[in-house]
What we know:
By secondary structure, the protein is mostly helical. Helices cover 54% and strands 5% of the residues. The protein has helices at 21-33, 50-59, 66-70, 74-118, 161-196, 205-217, 221-235, 245-250, 258-269; strands spanning 10-11, 14-15, 120-121, 127-130, 136-138. The chain is elongated, with a radius of gyration of 27 Å.
Amino acid sequence: MAGARKDIDQFDGISLDSLPKWLRDMIDLNNESAGRETGRIKRFNLPVSDKAINAEKEKEERRFNALMRLLQDPHYARLYHHAVATVTAAEEAAEKARRKLEQESELAENRRRDLLGKAEQLPDGTKVFQSMNGRIYAEHGEDVTHRKDFITELNSNSPKWEEYQHVKKITQEIEKRKQDVEHYHREIIDPAKNRLSDVDQPLSAEELEKLVKKIKTEMPMDVRVQQNTYELATSRINDPVRNETADELFGSYQPNAPKIQADFKTAHDEPYGSSATSLPTTIPKFT
């Protein structure tokens, strides 16, 4: 039969090995959970009942699943790989943003503690700051001007209330931004990864386009900044000429995909290197 395959890992020039590791792992886990024989070494050692194995063999005698069949269509495969690349790049950018915000948070918190350490205090140990208007405030905001006589060594070199409030506000804002990044990863990226790895009920072409749009529109500013950083670096490496509308939507998709490869390489070379799953370094050819 035309297009016959030796195993499920290779079809029409597309290899599972060309997908990022996080997606290969999830697909393999799904296949092993369902008791499918894929020709790949089992890695998760999941207990599978005979009933599940027999049902799967009857359903997929040729050891194919819905996703693999859809990926034989070059147009669908293009959309799918674009979605995978979008999610992978977003996860990488989100991880970099989170790590950068953690560093900023640590710096801000250290500065806040430094100001507290230099602040004057009441006899009970309460830290106090004098405002530019002459009022005196405890660290939590209480006006303690009436207790001024109990404060020793209050002078012009003591930290000001406005400075302490500013640093405290920055610390809170950074924490909120970090929570936004974590929410984006948990509520947007992770569900997208799960759907892309569903080999039995794969996303339609329209759903793939919606997924990509959601990944982009829901992206917090800190993640977008990280993504734009390596995209800008990539634009200096690759041919700046864009060919057609499809390139705007999906990026240049040619044999060896030089633009995507450069994006992935730049992502790894960025500061605050991510511990997230490595990005794919090769893109399959379609025949």
